[in-house]
Amino acid sequence: MSDQSVMVFASFTPREGRAEAVVSILRRMRTATRQEPGNEQYDLFQAERDGRTTFHLIERYADGDALQAHRDSTHYQAYRAEIPDLLDEPIGVLVLTEVD
Question: Domains in the chain: how many in total?
Fold first, then answer.
């Protein structure tokens, strides 16, 4: 993979009444991911729009290999198995590489 840093922007729309469960899982992920050697940023944000709460992760990895190591981790695999049933729609994921 590339040796250029990689950003990920992920969005989560919880089912009604499931926001606390979603944020709990995402906080657990934040703690575990920040300990990964190639992780440079893993920050959780919340937005309110039209009476709905959404959560957003801004992630940065040293390179593509670090992102793949994250995706291969036990905590990532557990989160991906657990969170879909709590969401109204699939996780929105954008993998970004720097232009400037």
Answer: 1
Burial of 94 (0-12, 13-18, 19+ CB in 10 A): exposed
- Cβ–Cβ < 8 Å for 39, 60: yes
This prediction's pTM: 0.90
For the domain that residue 40 is a member of, what is the CATH number?
A: 3.30.70.100
Name the residue range of residue 59's domain. 6-97
Nearest to 30 by CA among 40, 46, 44: 44
Model pLDDT for residues 29-70, shown as the tens digit of each residue: 999 999 999 999 999 999 998 889 999 999 999 999 999 999
Contacts made by residues 44-47, CB under 8 angstroms, sequence distance 24+? none
